[in-house]
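Quick review question:
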């Protein structure tokens, strides 16, 4: 894959990204996971229909699971 032509704005963005890469890694994380294509498309359609972001889906799911298992496990 060929790199796009260097323009002044692209050069500035690359420098900015390089300077802030470690800071971004320290403050944010990702879930590297895969879903079957059909399930992924279904989830994406649901999120689009209701205007929900993937980040909000993860947060709400996490909180819902915490409530669901509260008291069931004593992991803390």
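Suggested answer, residue by residue:
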């Amino acid at each position: 894959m060929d790199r796009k032509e260097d323009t002044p704005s692209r050069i500035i963005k690359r420098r900015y990204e390089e300077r802030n890469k470690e800071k971004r890694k320290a403050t944010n994380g990702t879930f590297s996971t895969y879903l079957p294509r059909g399930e992924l498309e279904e989830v994406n359609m649901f999120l689009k229909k209701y205007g929900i972001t993937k980040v909000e889906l993860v947060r709400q799911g996490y909180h819902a699971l915490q409530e669901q298992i509260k008291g069931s496990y004593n992991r803390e």
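Why it works: Residues 8-69 form one domain. The chain has one domain: 8-69.
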